[in-house]
Write a structure and sequence with these properties.
- By secondary structure, the protein is of the alpha+beta class.
- Helices cover 43% and strands 16% of the residues.
- The protein folds into 2 domains: 129 residues, Ribosomal Protein S5, domain 2 (2-Layer Sandwich), CATH 3.30.230; 169 residues, Alpha-Beta Plaits, CATH 3.30.70.890.
- It is globular, with a radius of gyration of 21 Å.
Length: 339
């Protein structure tokens, strides 16, 4: 689901072929020719904008002259696993398309933002973050079937806590790409068993014993996680639709354990938060984002004050500080505003 944090992009024309980008987060103005180079180092955030420009060029939806100035302000924590990069790419896509006078559907906006991050920046991500950032409705979560891009809005009106560990992750060159490679290796092997298999998530859950026999570690564990997480996600959507938050919360705990043990993408700080929440009686908790740092989400139920106190105490004991904790709610996706 989208949360109430926002990334805002203000745009205007620039000389042909040039992107000039400035952010309230970073000190320097970045100036690049978007067809020739992608920024590295501290200016690498502007690579997302350059990637968006390349994709808009392919759609013939560039601003006049193919150049733009863009100013970005965001309160989405960077590296916290709450899709700051997707928010940037979606905001830039929406703003630059509007500058060009082009009308893109929400799905087109999500597609441009995804390809900018995946194809041009080099993060081997999926389409979930960009799709939710573009299509989210207030008061709803979004069930996304990534293979078909089918979506369904699910009512979600419970309070959630977002607990930021303060440990940032880097997805461009990190272990996310390694996990993606392991899952692709699993598909190649499993196609011997099921030739029509394209996506690992399509492997039937009732065939897990057959999968385990076919694969060796660590690929086996990665595949078991993906198949199990797919089933959990569909079941979770149905539980939310029925308003069964207790059962939904139990799935959050199961999901985190699978991330920790099978996909090996958690972190000690995240495990500390989830364990403390469970001891304090929270309905559910799990890491969010790709892992190896970032934030956890907690469904506190009626024990919110007790849960917050327990998390703070456990984190302070383990790491000598308290994590940042915010209440988050299901909010809307990208929108255009004229100022």
């Amino acid at each position: 689901m989208a949360i109430q944090y926002r990334t805002m992009a203000a745009v205007g024309p620039a000389e042909p072929g040039v992107v000039e980008a400035v952010s309230t987060t970073y000190p320097d103005v970045i100036r690049v020719r978007w067809q020739e180079e992608l920024p590295q180092g501290e200016g690498s955030w502007a690579a997302y904008v350059a990637g968006v420009m390349r994709e808009l060029w392919a759609l013939e939806a560039l601003p006049a002259g193919g150049g733009a100035r863009i100013a970005v302000h965001s309160n989405v924590p960077v590296g916290a696993g709450v899709s700051s990069s997707a928010a940037l790419a979606v905001a830039a896509t929406k703003a630059l398309a509007q500058l060009a006078g082009a009308t893109l559907t929400g799905r087109q906006v999500a597609g441009v933002a995804f390809r900018a991050e995946h194809d041009h920046v080099g993060v081997r991500c999926g389409v979930m973050d960009q799709t939710i950032s573009a299509l989210a409705k207030p008061g709803h979560a979004l069930l996304l079937e990534a293979a078909s891009l089918e979506t369904r809005h699910i009512p979600f009106r419970a309070r959630l806590l977002m607990v930021d560990t303060g440990v940032k992750h880097d997805l461009k060159g990190g272990r996310l790409n390694e996990r993606r490679g392991e899952c692709e290796a699993a598909v190649r092997r499993l196609k011997i068993e099921l030739p029509e298999l394209v996506w690992l998530a399509s492997w039937p859950a009732e065939w897990l014993p057959r999968l385990k026999r076919a694969l060796k570690e660590p690929v086996r564990s990665r595949a078991v996680h993906v198949v199990g997480e797919t089933a959990r996600t569909r079941f979770a959507a149905e539980l939310l639709r029925r308003g069964r938050l207790k059962e939904f919360g139990r799935l959050l705990y199961e999901s985190h354990e699978s991330c920790r043990r099978l996909f090996d993408c958690s972190a000690p700080e995240l495990d500390t938060i989830v364990a403390a929440a469970k001891r304090a009686g929270a309905l559910g908790a799990r890491m969010t984002g790709a892992g190896w740092g970032g934030a956890a989400i907690v469904l506190p139920g009626r024990n919110e004050k007790k849960v917050v106190t327990a998390i703070n105490a456990a984190f302070r004991k383990a790491y000598g500080r308290e994590p940042a904790i915010d209440v988050v709610k299901a909010s809307g996706g990208a929108r255009a505003e004229r100022v």
